[in-house]
Design goal:
Bound molecules: zinc ion
Strand order of the largest sheet: 6-5-4-7-11
Shape: globular
Helix content: 40-55%
Oligomer: single chain
Number of domains: 3
Largest sheet: 5 strands, mixed
Structural class: alpha/beta
CATH superfamily of the largest domain: ATPase, nucleotide binding domain
Number of strands: 16
CATH class of the largest domain: Alpha Beta
Length: 415
Amino acid sequence: MSEKADSELVRRQNRRVVLETLRHAGPMARIELGRRTGLSPATISSIAGQLIDRGLVQPIDEAPASEMPQKRGRPITRLDLNPAAAHVLAVKLSIDELELVLADFRGEVGRRIVLRIPTYEADAARFGATVAQEIRSFLQAAKVPARAVARIGVAVQGLADTHLGTVVWSPAFGARNVPIGGPIEQALGLPVSVANDANMMAEGLLSLDPQRYGGTTAVVFMGYGVGMGLVIDGHVYHGPTGGAAEFGHMNHIPRGPLCRCGRQGCIEAYAADYGIVRAASEMAGSARPSETAVPEEIMLGLEEAARHGEPRARAAFEKAGEALGFGIARLIALLSPSRVVLAGPGTRAMALIEPALHRSIADGVVDELRRNVAIEVVPLSTDMIVKGTIDGLLRHLDRDVLAAGDNRQPLETLG
Ligand SMILES: [Zn+2]
């Protein structure tokens, strides 16, 4: 590598570190930025100058003198991300629902709407164009021109092909291989990424606490389905086409109950809401899972019955814990994660699920491996999917677009 290319690489890395530090820790003085990044005052000064010139960073208010007693009377200018530098748009697609959320460069959420939109019966060839039209109206109402949006991220239940931008299979769609990214890119002329919603949850956790979740962490989503977002060495792992970590569709028992994916015996067929309801009822394992989500009041009723000792309900939650536990045991043997995080509305019934879950992990993997893994439950709402999508979009901007260099003029495209 030439010396010139080498030093450009270093500058790029430094710009990225400065942007990411301001993003995670908020506004701070240059001296503090230097302390946190380990960069010299001269380097900080030069990078800050470049980022201010490009409109990505702005000098803001002066810290009160009391914060810096040793420099009483000398106001300190802090640096902050410029919220107007770019916008990103998160699109969450679930069964018969489309949620659109606009955020600024600081990650602060502006306009947000939830639309009822038929997904299950939708015509696969036209669906992407319909979403694009909704985005266009949404941006008009928000008075944000499309060119001010740097990137759109779509989070979807089920299996998303990150490379093609299609929804390969999802409980939200009757059709397979629904094109989403391409039609939106064509209609609006903006870059679009499409990803699985549980992966976006992992992005959200990663931004929330990079120290805690930045190693190798598996986030298990429990609710209408069973999903997983996998953080490996600090990055969400999507696999070559986005199909990685389909934990819910790992086989638990060959030829077991029917799963929503069409196969038999998947973990989800035992541990998703519909699997628990089916096991607790008189329905056979071969009964076709319902296309719609199980209403919350049905799950609440079932949890209540199990708490009062109703045997079928108790056994159904135990079976769910067992399927999850053996699945997690396999995951531990394979990847040795430092944390397994259980999240989603299904964790409401954790007290009913947990004993069988821990027993099955203990039965499924040797103690020496198991003891290194922290298993925790976080009450994450589905909002975490939107937050993770926004965080992922901004991280992509910081790392791959804005840090790239001042020979480009990214703001021209950002509006
Ligand atoms: Zn399945």
